[in-house]
Amino acid sequence: MKILRYLLLGLALVLIIIQFVPNELPAVEMNNPSDLLATDQVDGEVANLLKAACYDCHSNSTKYPWYSHVAPVSWLVAKDTREGREEVNFSNWSDYDMMDQLKILDDVYSEVEEEHMPLPIYITMHSEADLTPEQRQKIMAWAESTMDIIAEEE
Amino acid sequence: MKRLSLIPIAGLVAVLFFQAAQKPEFESHPELDEAKMPAKVKAVVEQKCYGCHNAESKSDKAKKKLDWDEFEAAKKSKQLAAMAEINETLVEGEMPPKKFLENKPEGKLTEEELQILLDWSSGKKKKDE
Fold first, then answer.
1. CA gap B111, A8 in Å, rounded
2. Cβ neighbours of A148 in B, within 8 Å
3. Fewer Cβ neighbours under 10 Å: the N or C end of chain A?
4. d(CA B2, CA B5)
């Protein structure tokens, strides 16, 4: 019994100590004039799906839950958000050139189709990001038709 | 008699072996349509990429990432997206894979070949063309 108490105490101490490890969550910016949602390339329903399932990591308008400020979860959230934005940031949509937009939409299609995205660990904490097969189809159909429109405009 | 009957079999085996050893690599692929790809791009692709990135490729990974047979048949939007992907891969120096080049150093892209692929896959049309 004593050992267990020491263990729990030790664990609590470790948890307290790691809160002081420097870790910065990527900054939130709600005013994004180049955002995909500010264009006419996406309609209401798909826009809502993207916002619910992708925008926490793939835009500047991340909604951080309370536990994303608590280590060690905060480390994972910071890493996933930073890397997600690097890969695709829908808040910078209009700044991407045509070729990059096509590549991103092509990736959206396959990542959503193969259920690589949203990340499984993200879905466990965000049930609204758990896309139904129909919702996945909607996003894929949108990505494909938008690619056609962009390619024709060239 | 038994020995003699072995000759045609040995012959057949030799033919099969010869065919297998002569895998297409440098052969011309009529399915790579020139209208969609300039001739010099096509030449580099056939020599340096097509060996792994084709519909019958033994490497599922290579085929899944990029299949030139599929590319040819794809619509414009898909082709442009694939070109952007190719461009990024080449800029980052990820292809041909280092592991592959260890066994086949001649598979490396020359400066000139790399430039041809980069110019084409960037999707930007040059002024003099």
1. 61
2. 75-77
3. N
4. 5
Looking up tokens 């070729």 gives: A99
List, in order, residues 6 or more apart from A53 with CB less than 8 Å away.
Answer: A117, A118, A128, A129, A131, A135
Nearest residue to B23 via CA among B44, B66, B54: B54
Residue whose C-alpha is closest to residue B42's, from B116, B124, B123: B116
- Structure confidence at residue B20 (pLDDT): 56
Please say whether the dihedral angle defined by the alpha carbons of residues B36, B40, B44 and B46, taken in this order, is positive or negative.
positive
The pLDDT of residue A46: 94
**pLDDT classification of B127: cutoffs 50, 70, 90:** very low
**For A110-125, how does the pLDDT look when each residue is reduced to its tens digit (9 = 90+)?**
999 999 999 999 999 9
User: With contacts defined as CB-CB under 8 Å, which chain B residues touch A151?
Assistant: 75-77, 80
Of residues A1 and A123, which shows the higher confidence score?
Answer: A123
Of A103, A152, A154, the CB nearest to B81: A103
